[in-house]
Amino acid sequence: MLNFQQVKWLLVSFAAVVSLSSCDVMSYIKTPLPTAPHQAPVTKTAKESVRIQVYSHGWHAGLVIPASAMRKHAWTNDLQIANTKYVDFGWGSEEFYRTEGFTFPMLMRGLFWPTAAVIHMERFNESPYHHYPYSQLESFDLTQEEADRLITELSKTFARRPDALGNRHVINLGHGLKPDSTYYRSKPRYFYPQTCNVWTANLLRAGGIKVKRSTRSPKLMTELRKSPRLVR
Hints:
Blueprint: H1 4-19, E1 49-56, E2 61-66, H2 67-70, E3 86-93, H3 94-97, H4 104-112, E4 117-124, H5 128-131, E5 136-143, H6 144-155, E6 160-162, E7 168-170, E8 172-175, E9 181-185, H7 196-206, H8 217-225, E10 230-231
Helix pairs in contact: 1-4, 6-7
Pfam families: DUF2459
Keywords: Signal
Protein name: Membrane protein
C-alpha cells in the first residue's frame, strides 16, 4: 500500500503532466513564438468582411475582434469600447489570472473541480500585428453573419446581474493586466479540460471556422495555420 508521501508525489506528478495542457499554467509545451515580428497579411479586408485574429502568447490563446463589429450588439455598451479600434478577449481561471505564481492547492483546484473564471478584455488602437509582434497571430475574415454569431456566443460567456430597473449587465471586476483592460465575471466556471484554448475554439466554430476543441495552444495554432480560411 502506498504511504502518504508516495500518494502526494503521484498527485503532483499527475498534475504536472496534465498542467502541460492547461492555458492557466506556464507550460513547458508552448506554441513556438516567432523569431522576427509578424507581418500583417497582404490580402486586404473586403468591405463586407470582419477580420479577426487568433493569438497565442505561447501558453494562452484568445481572440482580437474589431470594436466596430462589437458595437453593433447592444450588450457591448457595458464594455466601454466606444473609442477604441480593437478588443482582445481571453478567458481562464480567476485565481491563476489574478495571482502571480501558483501553488499546489491552486493547481489542484484548477484541475479537479470547477473554479471561478474571468474574461480579460483589453482595448487598443494600433494594428494587432504591431500590438503583438512576437506572439503567434493568425487572421481570418468572417462574413457579417459569422461575426454576429461569434459575438453572440462570446456574450454567453459573460455573467450578468440586474440593476435597480431589472436590466441585466455584465459584471465588471476591475482593472486588468494591461493599461486599458478590464476583468469581467465569467458565467462558465474553469475546470480542466475546459481551457482557454477550448473556449477560443468554441468561439471560432460559432463564427464558421472549422477547428477542433484542443486543450493545447500549439495544437490549436497548428490546425489554424492549415485552415483554408486563413488570410495570408
